[in-house]
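Objective 1.3, modelling of assemblies. Example input:
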Amino acid sequence: MYLAAYFISFMRNFFKYIFYNFFLILLIYSCSKDDSSLEDVPLKDIATQYALENDSIVEFLQTHFYNYENFQNLSSDNTIELLIDTISGDNSDKIPLFNQVSTISIDIEGDDGEIIKHNMYYIINREGSGDNPTVADSVFVAYKGLTLGNTTFDFRKTPVWLDNTSVVRGFKEFTTLLKRGDISTNNDGTYLLSNYGIGTVIMPSALGYYNSGTGSISAYSPLIFQINLSTYNTTDHDYDGVKTINEDVNNNHIFTDDDTDGDGLPNYRDPDDDGDGILTIDEYDANNDGIIDDTDGDGIPDYLDNDEGK
Ligand SMILES: [Ca+2]
Ligand SMILES: [Ca+2]
Ligand SMILES: [Ca+2]
Ligand SMILES: [Ca+2]
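Predicted structure (tokens):
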């Protein structure tokens, strides 16, 4: 039951991801060995699969290094491409990734509704000069995506806009650990990005594509992303006056599973969240005093309360 819900939500996000990133997918196609864009394999138990993948990620971290020497003297506006190699031969004295990563744990709901903590391992090369986006925001990012087999499945040297509500879970979670940089406009209208956050994250497949293989990514493949966060925009997808980050009612960082009025439109896409015929924008803070309205004082704000005052 929970797994099915997770799967549906996952697939919905995945197809949105495809829709919003058409060019990105074209790139994936061009790298793929065959034309099958999507090959689902049977669902495995999330806890069991996580344990297996975490072991292989840890082993990978212990036996591989990245070009950390190149990142030691970062200029404010230059981008260094992440390169990963095995610790052996001429490189046997390199510091393993394992000694350099930090860990963050992301909650994933398992088959019985239990929460299974999924570790992501990451390195921040530069924090960034500005503030952090949320998991709901649109991020302007350059990035490189790799598998543990060191296959590059996507590479964006110049930044593109991605909607964090549509990308894989681990990607959006990691962008919130980075800060945006500075943007200055030159006389000729071009702009210069500098001091943006730079980092790399390694995640298990439940935070990526899980059982859906795509292009050169096989099913149950952990993913590596290097991300440069140039800047971001705060989002309000349905223009209802409630920021998308605040439409995640159950606060699980998934936006498709909050549908207060059960009309099939998740709150972040629904301009009338409680389905009472009054637009959210007209009942969120009707008297404009900066306080969210709750007319009957039951703790449920008017815009989510369809029996408000009746
Ligand atoms: Ca949610
Ligand atoms: Ca709805
Ligand atoms: Ca809404
Ligand atoms: Ca309403």
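Residues 236-310 form one domain.
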